Amino acid sequence: NDLEIFNYIIENPNSNSFIFKGAKTLEYDHLAPKTTYLAVAFNVDTYQDVVDGIIDIELFRKEFTTDDAAAVDPSTLFTYKNLTVDYTNFSLDVTPVQGDDKLWTYYVFEKKYFDEYREKGLQQVVMRAYFGLYNLCSEYNSLNGANLTFNEFINDYMGQLGATTIINYEPLKPAKDYVVAMFYMDTEVYDPTVVYDYNFVAVEFTTST
Hints:
The protein is an alpha+beta fold. About 25% of the residues lie in helices and about 25% in strands.
């Protein structure tokens, strides 16, 4: 709906920074790989007439899709060893290659969902992991009567610095295929919609029958 898009843009407190005169080459950093976007433009001179309902808004639309991200050598991110699995648990020794001062975390997927997300693009895995971690934070607050922000939950519980042994944070199902994805986090960015480092290391395992 053109009018809804128009209102969304106009209501943005930074909308003035999007106003230009004449020809303009627009550049935008930190787009997600393998993602379809819609760029829109409209005549600001008729803004008030649109707001007053005198004329209908007409948007110029340009849809485009970013390329998938190039694969990164997993050995430049993390190394791991000593995978141990039983009916409902796993453990894995993980060492971050990029330094002990870089915050990292992990998320456990059922393999069928991991494969589905990965097929849609590299970024989907980490974005889905962020959403899953948000849910874990909400569950923790609900069960413990806490009021942790997502940042606090990551820093206090799920965030890792240096080498450590990771384990499941909730019981797993027997005889199921899983994937644990390890990835770095920006200590200043916890919003999955603005994260732009989507590289991860995935380790598959199957719980015992």
